[in-house]
Queue: 3 jobs
Job 1
Amino acid sequence: MKLFRFRILLHSLAGITLLALPLHATFAQGANAANVLNQMSAAFSGGKIVQNVQLSGNAIWHTGNLEDSGAATLTASSDGSSLMQLVLASAGQRAEIQTGSGLDATCQWAGADGVSHAINSVSCGRPVIWFMPTLSLQPSLLPSDLGVADLGMGTVGAVANTCRHLQSQLTLSGSPDPVSTDIAQMSKTDIGIAPNSLLPEVLVYSARPDGGAAIAIAVEVHFSDYRTVAGVQIPFLIQRYVNGSLQLELHLSSAEIN
């Protein structure tokens, strides 16, 4: 599959209706979570619904002590679909695509050869877009199979600042307890909301190798340098850490909304 086909695939899959499942009432602090989500939505966009975001800028890919840089384009939709395309000076093109959120989502990545590689379904099960979590957590657009808990104030990940700690995960009522527990665990995502800006400062989740080995890979994403674009707050610096090491830096230069 050539790289340009990823954009076509993303658009063709955006209309798929994801499986709507009943919300499993497991979070005792649901009312507080709803308040925090409403406050975050107000800070993000003034409460207006944002359907699509396109970001452009420069990417720096870290491999050990080596760095590779180039152009970056990212698109995200409120249905959970997303696409990241990098054109790096040494490694060439790289794409990461997710078709939606929830149990029906699929994820792939491709390198310079354009060959598509399926990302492990456990890694694909996270309920938020990793580089734009606010787009996935707009209160009026939350899918029925997404549960959100307010865990109060504390630290999240390696960020030393005290944040409001939200935890989101997929839920599946009516299934055997081991199945529901496994789904909840594999999709669990921790979000640290800065108390002053009410915007995400850090996102923490786990992934697994593409082959499906039961090895947890810790992923942590930091957001900073928020700027207002068409009334929407966009982080112009996004840093992704894998197992504690900086893997990817995105220095954005522009954003388009809806």
Note: The CA atoms of residues 23 and 145 lie 5 Å apart.
Job 2
Amino acid sequence: MFEKAKEKVLTETKEDSNKGIGTLSEKTLHRILKYYFEPFGDNHEIKIANYFADIVGENGIIEIQTQSFNRLKSKLTQFLEVCAVTLVYPIAIRKKVIVINENGEHIKSYTSPLKGSKYNLFDEIFYIKELLTNKKLTICLVLLNVTEYRTTEKKHKGRRKHEKLNTIPDELVEEIYINGASGYKMFLSDNLPDGFVSRDLSNSAKIPLHRAQTMLNILTSIGTVERIGKSGNSYTYRTKE
């Protein structure tokens, strides 16, 4: 199903572009996921309350968000008043980068040293943490291998940088569904002791300390973990039953 969705969108995209897929705006990944979750186009872009939903079907609303969850809270709140919502968040766990010039010609390619994981979710859901305990909201993580197209380096505010043009998914690796506070226990290792601190979580999950701290802020807020004291300057936590 994923390959069929990808073929449909990429075929249409090539027909619409003379310069090639790498020069198009950053919408291809979003469109492929729309057709993967709902092949029937008439169910796309349906107005619900004051917003348009990506997909509306027999299982409720499916909304695909590739970034910027800080803009999503009002929209999700209105959707959840109507029906169940699945929020799809794609995460690139492996990324090949292709740099192209203004004519769409490939200049160089390389594999990005930055690897994503399911824990990337916590950088975004901080902005909607008040909604995470709503049983009508399900988070779907889509872990992908992707190819990212970038421009050649340009000066921007005195620094040279590439501009991201488009992201094309190469392979769907895994889907992970999360619902309710208990669903977030999957992010906590079984070997974490009662009284663990953020550094313990960082080490067990192999994530940066700042992400572990954000994660604990969210999990405490929704009741997945609870603070039970302090160790030095750090709060101590345990998983709630």
Note: Residues 22-26 have pLDDT under 50 and may be disordered.
Job 3
Amino acid sequence: MFRFVTAGESHGKCLTGVIEGLPSGLVVDTDFINQQLHRRQLGHGRGRRMQIEKDRIDITAGVRHGRTLGGPVAFLIENKDWNNWRIPMSPEPVAEEANLRSLTRPRPGHVDLAGVLKHQTHDARDVLERASARETAARVAVGAFCRLLLRRFGTHIASHVLAIGGVRVPQAAENVNSQEILALDAESPIRCADADIEKEMMSRIDQAAKDGDTLGGVAEVIAACVPAGLGSHTQWDRKIDGRLAQALMSIPAVKAVEIGDGIVAANRLGSQVHDEIFYDLEQHRFFRKSNNAGGVEGGITNGADLRARIFVKPIPTLRKALMSVDLITKEPSFAGFERSDTCVVPAAGVVAEAVMGIVLAAAFLEKFGGDSMAELEAAFANYQKQLSQF
């Protein structure tokens, strides 16, 4: 069974990840992993924290001579900003007069108030440090391992931005071919397929930054060349779209998820929505001329590109602070401010790529099994042969 856990706080010593279930013999390309970590830090509208951190993976277990061993893989990602937070985030007790950088004015839209009520603390830093999107660096690293596995079987994942702050690509241009998305500059500031719209998005972000405000938007993540048959229709928690939706919703600031044309399909006739089925006699395969379903039917991948959209709210840390209440005095007060970003939509797209990779890799390993890459490759090849003879 594939699974992973992460640990670490935003301003703690480091982020930690442990991955279980990867087969032995998977070639680990640390340059690829570090590239994904770097991409998560990019994007027009990111804050000063990204200038401090230079995320790189330090693999501490489970890999030997560039290949997985079949046991748990462990890694660290250093928090360089830890040097400025040694006392406020010290694991050991500190002097009573020390500056703990406590946050007692909860930010609307953040975990602050719900978290302090749950854990009965008057310092929101006890909960906000773990709730911070800094944790997603560890998830991007986990997802990079998963994407290395999927790439061995021809599946590639990419994302692009559809909307930021009300600036949106024309609806007719939204369903961009997956090959165009894969060809986008992985390190572009927005990763929008429409260059003119991208300039408008950047201008809108700049204005929001001047105003002390933040912006949300929509990003789409696509997996190309996904084999049919991943997931299951037999139980609610095994449906691949349900698992993907949950994983995408767990990304900080994501408030809604759409798979395929799920939202607009609700306003159309069935004859306009469902993807008709055809058969290629020469290539011995079924295919569709459309992909309104987003590559999933009945909880199972159908062989088309897997497409999902995330709807990202404006992040809740505002220099133009909203009203709140002090946790200790109960007096009205403006919400606290933590160093933050203006817009994270492009970065959220990178995290969504990692999350989709995790979900697909888990489903892939469930279907094809094997303790080693050799077993996995043999099972996959046999399945492909069976499909060609169906």
Note: Residues 3-388 form a domain with the Chorismate synthase, AroC fold fold (CATH 3.60.150.10).
